[in-house]
Amino acid sequence: MKIEFPKINIGISACLLGENVRFDGGHKNLYFANQVLCNYATYHRVCPEVGIGMSIPRKPIRLIEDEGLVKLVDSRTGEVDYTDKMQAYSETKCQSFSGLNGFIVTSKSPSCGMERLKVYDKEGNQIGKNGVGIFTKTLMEKYPNLPVEEDGRLNDSQLRENFIERVYVHADWQSNVVASENMADLVQFHSRRKYQIMSHSYQAYKSLGKLVANHDNIPLEKLKAEYFSQLMSALKNIAGRKKHCNVLQHIQGYFKKELDKDEKQELTELIQQYRAGFVPLLAPLTLVKHYLTKYPNEYLSQQSYFAPYPLKMGLNG
User: The pTM is what?
Assistant: First the structure.
């Protein structure tokens, strides 16, 4: 079951690639981006603060709330307002990102942070921690289905795997469905990702299935937009052990006539050992792939569940 994965296009904050563009003249080198993901991705780097003409090094900036509006200002005096310039830059820059499959931004950055940024009042008092960097806010509003993650969250193995999985789904969609005028391409996409979707949300799989089945009543472009929106939202749910076990048991059913008693018991025990946390997911998956080679099944062979991203990335726990 050899799968050829396309080169993915990833937007990324330049400081995470080791560029000395931060306010203090330093960087935030992200190991995963520089040592792992770089082997599979083409990077499109950006530093919004340098992009609007700020110097290196430069005075720190912060988000403040003023009369219900969030602004980006000089953190020492609050007298220099960068809001309009940053918004204009972000709008223009984001227009060039339609071909991206994902974006990695810098946490805690008033321009690039994705969530939980500190917000202050005009007097410098912290009034909340619910801010979003102006550049990243523009990015997520313009591309709501684009996988976006922060560097810090990518240190969590589950969040890292989830992000990469969504990136490859996004790339597949862009390559095979988004420009197609053929309903069959959407049907095939949904079919080969059945168990992958189920591993994140069985309810989402059923809902998406109904959407595809009802295609005669919905214009194709509207259908694709609704399908992809629901799909990318569902994939944000972490595929935990219980959900994976449910999927593995479904897949085991395809071999009920082929496997002998000992083989069935071996697979059942391995699934239960995975559920209990004694072995990684790769263990039952490897055995299933072995049986799939021994007892070929065309429908199962096309399932992205067995290889949602390149195995050599070392993400499968």
Answer: 0.95
